[in-house]
Amino acid sequence: MHQSPICRMRLIENIRITDTACEDVVVKLRLENIDRKNVLPFTAGQFVVMGIPGVKNPAPAYFAVASSPYEARYYEFVVKRGSGMADYLSELAPGAEIEVEGPMGKGFDLLPFKKCNVILMGVGTGISPLRSVWRSIIEERESYGKVTIYAGFLTPLHRLLTDELEALSEQHIEVKISLDRTDDDWNGPIGYVQDALLADHPDPENSVVCLAGMSAMVDACTETLQNLGFDDSRILLNF
After folding, report:
1. Confidence at residue 182, expressed as pLDDT on a 0 to 100 scale
2. Among candidate residues 74, 104, 134, the one where a domain is terminated
3. Domain range for residue 150?
4. DSSP state of 115
5. What is the spatial distance between Cα 103 and Cα 193, in angstroms, rounded to a whole number?
6. Dist CA 64 CA 106 (whole Å)
7. Domain check: are 116 and 221 in the same one?
8. CA distances from 33 to 95, 132, 201 (A)
9. What is the pLDDT along the chain (239 residues), one digit of tens a residue?
10. Is residue 38 located within the same domain as residue 137?
């Protein structure tokens, strides 16, 4: 069996990206190699296993890379507190060493879909591997048709990467946010991302979809896409 490479990396940035009033803590981590050499190349949507050298508890865990494959100097991750290693990582200060195994997984291979429309669908921190995809698309924007992101969050306080998502219109990327529940200040869709997709009824013949999130969300979105006429070969998962 192929052994994924293991390297030591250094945490250089740890920034909370959820509102301080939100009960869920989500941070964005940036890591560089200890020797400051380029990071290992990867395909958008791939993931790594992160652990702490010399620490067995909490156990190492899987995290999707959130940075662009075109960024050679560092990896970025979007990490939500709520499990052992995620909690540990979210508390680390810059300078801490992290053991990283990977990249691994199949990722989202868009090479066969040049000139197609691209749909990215994710909820919560499932947006992490999709961020890698849209940042990659920006570098080769002319290679694809219409690009649409359907992102779902629990409430306005749970929204992630808000400024970055709003700026994507400058790259001719459309972003549609759906919230599970909200207040009177929200004018956008309330419900599931697949409901917003269904309302738009995209062309299944010239589109490819990247799905990321909890298994129940992926299953529901897959069913909606199939009902819209999407062939399974055009519904991509990163694992």
Report:
1. 73
2. 104
3. 111-236
4. T
5. 28
6. 12
7. yes
8. 11, 19, 44
9. 457 889 999 999 999 999 999 999 999 999 999 998 999 999 999 999 999 998 889 999 999 999 999 999 999 999 999 989 999 999 999 999 999 999 999 999 999 999 999 999 999 999 999 999 999 999 999 999 999 999 999 998 899 999 999 999 999 999 999 998 876 677 777 889 999 999 999 999 999 999 998 899 999 999 999 999 999 999 999 98
10. no
Please give the full DSSP string across 94-111, using - where no structure is assigned.
TT-EEEEEEEES-----G
Together in a domain, 12 and 42? yes
- Cβ within 8 Å of residue 37, ≥6 positions away: none
Residue 1: inside a domain, yes or no?
A: no
Q: Which residue has the tokens 């291979």?
A: 109
CA angle centred on 197, ends 193 and 198, rounded to 5°: 115
Give the number of domains in the chain: 2
Looking at the structure, tell me whether residues 115 and 229 fall in a common domain: yes
Q: What is the largest CA-CA distance in the chain?
A: 54
CA–CA separation, 156 vs 177, rounded Å?
10
Question: Is residue 42 in some structural domain?
Answer: yes
This model's pTM is above 0.90: yes
Angle between helices 215-227 and 193-200 (to 10 degrees): 10
